Each structure stands twice: as structure tokens, then as C-alpha cells.
Amino acid sequence: MEFIKRSSLAQSEKVQLMALWNNEYPEKLAYKSMAAFDTYLENLKDPSHILLIDEDKKIKGWYFDFIRDNEKWFAIILDSQIHGKGIGSKMLELAKEKENELNGWVIDHSTDKKKNGEIYSSPLPFYLKNGFKKITGNRLELDKISAVKIKWAK
């Protein structure tokens, strides 16, 4: 497996990333069309990406960051088959090398289901283990997502 840094994505990468997103995030966050996913990506301000590519050139993980409200925001998605192997932590290390702070929304409950019917497990313990702080008073409560803000700073 190797990490590849990108400032923009090829269409073939976007197709794989949408599939990864739709398979690993809660089903209610899934994108119904490539056009909708493209619109999401096009609206990210100053994005950068780290892709985790396996031996078969398939994308197994994706870190991306962007600017929102004058802060650096990020997300990570890993294929669930590679969870617990230190790969997500390594992706965060690569991001922390180039950033002074990172902000994210993290689902902090286990009531959502993924497309395959499995429960979406909250990644909050992973982020706390990796030096992030939970900003308890800052929540995102929408029809599609209930999440708490997390923050890391050098």
C-alpha cells in the first residue's frame, strides 16, 4: 500500500472515492449520483487529498482537507477491511506534518447503518487517541447527520 498526495482528482479516482464514501459512511450520507458527488467536491475550497492505493491500484483510503469558515477541515474514509492496522493514524500523521490545525465533524453515536446494513461505528475514540479534542458544545444536528466537532492543533 502506498500514499499518494494530490491537489486534484482524476475522474477514475472520483468514481472509486464515491464508492468508498457510499460503502463506509452511513447510508443516509450516500451520494445518489456522480454529478452530486462532483458538486460536493467542486465546492470544497483549496482541497488537498491523500489517497491510499493498494497493490492492484485500487483506492482503499482517502484523506482530504479544505478551508471552511477560515479553518482547515478534513475527513478520512478507510475501507473497513483495513481498520485497526494503524493506517488511519499514518494518514493523520502525514496531514499533521503540513497543517497547524485540523477540524472535523465526527458522528459520536452508533445508531446509523451503512449501505450493507452494518452499524456505522463512531470513529470518535480513534480521533481522541490521535490527539484530537472533542469540542462538546459544538454540534452539527441535521436530518442526515448528528455529529460533534473535533479539533487538533500543534
Summarize the structure.
The protein has 4 helices and 7 strands.
Q: What is the radius of gyration?
A: 15 Å
Instruction: Please provide the count of β strands.
Output: 7
Count of helix runs: 4
**In order across it, which strands form the biggest sheet?**
1-2-3-4
Determine the N-to-C terminus distance: 28 Å
Q: What is the element string, with H for helices and E for strands?
A: EHHEEEHEHEE
Mass-distribution shape:
globular
The level of helicity is 25-40%
Integer average pLDDT: 94
Largest sheet, strands/sense/barrel? 4 strands, antiparallel
Instruction: Enumerate the spans where pLDDT stays under 50 for 5 or more consecutive residues.
Output: none
Structural class call reads alpha+beta
Report the portion of residues in β strands. Answer: 35-45%
Describe what you observe in this structure.
The chain has 154 residues and is of the alpha+beta class. The protein is 27% helix and 36% strand. The chain contains four helices and seven strands; from the N terminus they run βααβββαβαββ. It has helices spanning 11-24, 34-42, 87-98, 124-129, and strands at 2-6, 45-53, 59-68, 71-78, 101-107, 133-141, 146-153. The strands form two sheets. It has a four-stranded antiparallel beta sheet with strand order 1-2-3-4, sandwiched between helices. A three-stranded antiparallel beta sheet has the order 5-7-6. β3 and β4 (71-78) form a beta hairpin. The longest helix has 14 residues, at 11-24. The chain is globular. The mean pLDDT is 94.
